[in-house]
Amino acid sequence: MALHDEYILQEGETKSTRVEGFENWGPSELASFFKVNGLGDYHELLVQHKISGKLAPLLKDVDLRDMGITCVGDRLRFQQLIANMKRKARATTRSHTVWVGEERLYFSDVEKCFFTCAGVCPDDPSTYKLTSNHLKLKTVKPFRIGPIKMCCCHEYTINNIDLTNVTDVDVIGVPAPCLLRACCCAKGKDILELQTAKAFLNGKMVLTLTGGEGDRVSGVIMNQVEESQVMERD
Predict the structure, then answer these.
(1) What is the average pLDDT value for the chain, to the nearest integer?
(2) Is the Cβ–Cβ distance between 166 and 137 less than 8 Å?
(3) 3-state SS of the chain?
(4) How many alpha carbons fall within 13 Å on the CB side of residue 197?
(5) In angstroms, how far apart are the furthest CA atoms of the chain?
(6) How far apart are alpha carbons 104 and 137 in whole angstroms?
(7) 94-104, pLDDT tens digit by residue?
(8) What is d(CA 65, CA 49) in angstroms, rounded to the nearest whole number?
């Protein structure tokens, strides 16, 4: 990744507010950020001391004094900007989408075509969205008249699961019926059961995925669980 004196701005950003990816900034790029925030007098000093974006969060008042920054107001301004950088970076990380998925309702396209009348009565599957700190589950409950599932008026609930409360993810493989496997090469389903430390809904949430995806997705979720728990401790 090439580093330049003037970093590239995205739409809606200004030079004084853009902090995404600051950990990858070199000394010159970091100094340019401080320059447009009123600390341009120290541009060469930051470059001279090789203060990069990765090192900036480690700066303390004593370090700034050792670098020769004698003005108390400027040292406080440095600390304020660094705190804002870390806060905005955490907010960006929390909203980053890691994985999105959709409930697997049918074992095969033939089965789907039959139950949706060739798409005339489309389904509304549940959806899943994993971010750095949360798993969002939109669970759809179809409206029924007796045993007949209608194609409208579905109810749904949305659960935002804090990953720091997830204790385990289990995968249960459900094979497709023999007839569908023989005639349609139908895949099975993978049921992911999330155990949580909270008592709501018996502490268990369920995701239904295409067969073969469960192991990969459970690994992605557990990686984010571990990372979010580390961030929580820090």
Answers:
(1) 83
(2) no
(3) CCCCCCCCCCCCCCCCCCCCCHHHCCHHHHHHHHHHHHHHHHHHHHHHCCCCCCCHHHCCHHHHHHCCCCCHHHHHHHHHHHHHHHHHHHHHHHHCEEEEEECCCCCCHHHHHHHCCCCCCCCCCCEEEEECCEEEEEEEECCEECCEECCCCCEEEEEEEEHHHEEEEEEEEECCCHHHHHHHCCCCEEEEEEEECCCHHHHEEEEEEECCCHHHHHHHHHHHHHHHHHHHHC
(4) 8
(5) 80
(6) 14
(7) 778 899 999 99
(8) 13
Are the CB atoms for 106 and 112 separated by under 8 Å?
A: yes
Mean local confidence (pLDDT), 195-218: 81
Which amino acid type is present at position 218? S
Length in residues, the chain: 234
> 88 to each of 18, 51, 84, 213, how far by Cα in Å?
9, 20, 6, 33
